[in-house]
């Protein structure tokens, strides 16, 4: 049983960021911490201590943050006084974690402070950092550690990281981030499912005929090929973000929102995912790679032409697959998952297709696909649409699909915090519910590993798709075989 590490009221907080000069810290973490500060969500006396290898003094670091992080704060959220107040919280400690011990960090750390260590570095440094933190006497029972993905590249490496971190931190002190779990829309999925009673009786086979989960990105690999080429879309997106979405759609109602109550249910889903074998990999999965095309009205290059992509790379930038969850609730219901870079546009959505009426009173009406669909749009817009059949005005009984449309943007005027801001506040307050537990992470790899290995055994080459399209034709064929089609 994991209960959150107690955040001790009254203790000052030291948030220590390893990789404090890296992309993630600069673009996401510091702006998110600024927003938390702006809205009074950091405890009084908080300090943010960034570490890095550069020979910076504090003034140079502040200038760096001003230059690099400030542009990632929307003008509407920028308040000069709050920003200056935020900079006051920042410290910089020069550390080369591979070479040095952490004496300098220990010296800068306040005795009796509650410490949060954010490891925004390559995972290959996690073990070293945790060992050195412990050796410097910085890990006590109030300490928390936040681990960024990728958490391993397969089950074996994930276990290794978990073991290494687990030598010094109890599970209740470990926050494994999947930023999708911090998105407002994803958290709202839990409310949609478990805050309403009308959906639950329908939320199962045979009432649901299929589920689609799409996370389409418009961006390409950008400058991240160094990391991305050795990962690919399966490790970068499916093993974590898409599986977490699938878990929330498919899980049984938890008994409470306590971290273990929720994570136990997600774990059951992951363990019930049907394992792939070579035959089902060949039949039910599609890998793709973008080629030159037009995206956002601009001509863009193909993956192989992007900077730092090795010649002839066979890394996938797109995955589509058909998965099954072998439980009573989901027996025989296909879950179609799809994600890719450089697709038609940025669009993440979940589509629940309900079974058609068993007998049609309106035989002249031929429509493709399901009569009723629940479409949950996660980004960029947040909306929930329930498609129903309605009579077309006029003589005869002609039907058409119409949507009951809930626009959450206009339903709520409140500000929507970014995922990182929300998750960082959870860490500060010691709330673990929206973080992955060790067994969940490992179960996700147990499912993903055979697919990745199978692709290599089968020497599966990624299928080309032009940038700006919805993936290779094989992805459409995957659904067409079942008489289904992707909902764009
Ligand atoms: C990250 C992946 O985890 O998620 C990136 O590493 C991807 O490749 C990003 O672009 C997508 O996140 P979002 O919030 O933009 O949907």
TrEMBL record:
Keyword Translocase carried by entry: no
Alphabetic keyword roster: Carbohydrate metabolism, Glucose metabolism, NADP, Oxidoreductase
GO BP of this protein: glucose metabolic process; pentose-phosphate shunt, oxidative branch
Family annotation (PANTHER family): GLUCOSE-6-PHOSPHATE 1-DEHYDROGENASE, GLUCOSE-6-PHOSPHATE 1-DEHYDROGENASE G6PD
Active site residues per record: 241
Domain Glucose-6-phosphate dehydrogenase C-terminal: 190-486
Gene Ontology MF, one: glucose-6-phosphate dehydrogenase activity
Residues that, per the record, bind substrate: 179, 183, 217, 236, 341
UniProt protein name: Glucose-6-phosphate 1-dehydrogenase
Residues at which NADP(+) binds: 53, 96-97, 149
Pathway connected to this protein: Carbohydrate degradation; pentose phosphate pathway; D-ribulose 5-phosphate from D-glucose 6-phosphate (oxidative stage): step 1/3
EC number(s) stated in the UniProt entry for this protein: 1.1.1.49
Catalysed transformations (reactions): D-glucose 6-phosphate + NADP(+) = 6-phospho-D-glucono-1,5-lactone + NADPH + H(+)
One Pfam family hit: G6PD_C
GO CC annotation, single: cytosol
Residue ranges of domain Glucose-6-phosphate dehydrogenase NAD-binding in the record: 16-188
Record SUPFAM superfamilies: Glyceraldehyde-3-phosphate dehydrogenase-like, C-terminal domain, NAD(P)-binding Rossmann-fold domains
UniProt cross-references to InterPro entries, sorted A to Z: G6P_DH, G6P_DH_AS, G6P_DH_C, G6P_DH_NAD-bd, NAD(P)-bd_dom_sf
Family: Belongs to the glucose-6-phosphate dehydrogenase family.
NCBIfam families: zwf
């Amino acid at each position: 049983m994991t209960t959150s590490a107690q955040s001790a009221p009254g203790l000052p907080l030291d948030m220590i960021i390893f990789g404090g000069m890296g992309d993630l810290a600069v673009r996401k973490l510091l702006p998110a911490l600024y927003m938390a500060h702006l809205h009074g969500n950091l405890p009084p006396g908080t300090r943010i201590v960034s570490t890095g290898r550069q020979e910076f003094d504090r003034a140079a670091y502040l200038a760096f943050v001003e230059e690099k992080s400030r542009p990632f704060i929307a003008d509407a959220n920028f308040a000069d006084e709050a920003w200056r107040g935020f900079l006051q919280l920042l410290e910089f400690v020069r550390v080369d974690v591979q070479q040095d011990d952490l004496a300098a960090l220990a010296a800068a750390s306040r005795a009796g402070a509650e410490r949060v260590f954010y490891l925004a570095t390559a995972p290959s440094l996690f073990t070293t950092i945790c060992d050195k933190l412990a050796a410097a006497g910085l890990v006590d029972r109030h300490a928390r550690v936040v681990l960024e993905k990728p958490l391993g590249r397969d089950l074996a490496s994930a276990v290794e990281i978990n073991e290494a971190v687990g030598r010094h931190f109890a599970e209740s002190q470990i926050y494994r981030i999947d930023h999708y779990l911090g998105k407002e829309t994803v958290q709202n999925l839990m409310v949609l499912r478990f805050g309403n009673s009308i959906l639950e009786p329908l939320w199962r086979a045979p009432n649901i005929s299929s589920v689609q989960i799409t996370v389409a990105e418009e961006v390409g690999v950008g400058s991240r090929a160094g990391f991305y080429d050795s990962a690919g879309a399966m490790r970068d997106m499916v093993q974590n973000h898409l599986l977490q979405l699938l878990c929330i759609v498919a899980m049984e109602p938890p008994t409470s929102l306590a971290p273990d109550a929720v994570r136990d249910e997600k774990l059951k889903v992951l363990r019930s995912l049907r394992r792939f074998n070579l035959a089902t990999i060949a039949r039910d999965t599609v890998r793709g790679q973008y080629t030159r095309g037009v995206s956002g009205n601009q001509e863009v290059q193909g993956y192989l032409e992007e900077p730092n992509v090795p010649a002839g790379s066979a890394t996938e930038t797109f995955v589509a697959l058909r998965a099954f969850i072998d439980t009573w609730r989901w027996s025989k219901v296909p879950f179609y998952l799809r994600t890719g870079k450089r697709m038609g546009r940025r669009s993440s959505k979940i589509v629940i297709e309900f079974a058609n009426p068993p007998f049609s009173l309106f035989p002249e009406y031929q429509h493709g696909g399901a009569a009723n669909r629940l479409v949950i749009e996660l980004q960029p817009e947040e909306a929930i649409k329930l498609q129903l059949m309605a009579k077309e005005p006029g003589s005869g009984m002609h039907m058409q699909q119409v949507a009951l449309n809930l626009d959450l943007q206009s339903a709520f005027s409140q500000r929507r915090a970014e995922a990182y801001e929300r998750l960082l506040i959870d860490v500060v307050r010691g709330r673990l519910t929206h973080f992955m537990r060790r067994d969940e992470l490992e179960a996700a790899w147990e499912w993903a590993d055979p697919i990745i290995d199978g692709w290599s055994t089968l020497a599966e080459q990624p299928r080309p798709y032009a940038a700006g399209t919805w993936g290779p034709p094989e992805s459409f064929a995957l659904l067409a075989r079942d008489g289904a089609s992707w909902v764009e």
